[in-house]
Amino acid sequence: xxxxxxxxxxxxxxxxxxxxxxxxxxxxxxxxxxxxxxxxxxxxxxxxxxxxxxxxxxxxxxxxx
Length: 65
Known about the structure:
Layout: H1 2-23, H2 27-56
Helix pairs in contact: 1-2
């Protein structure tokens, strides 16, 4: 379980670093905007990833019958 949490943390950190690197092309204000965007994106990815994947595959709940 800890291994999965570490993988998740590393992937989100890599995504943040990538966004900050792209934002750095526009100077300090670009980094600030990229950081705010990264926080929102990481929050959504961490807490709503299950719902996002289920929506992507058009999953439907199965009844007993």
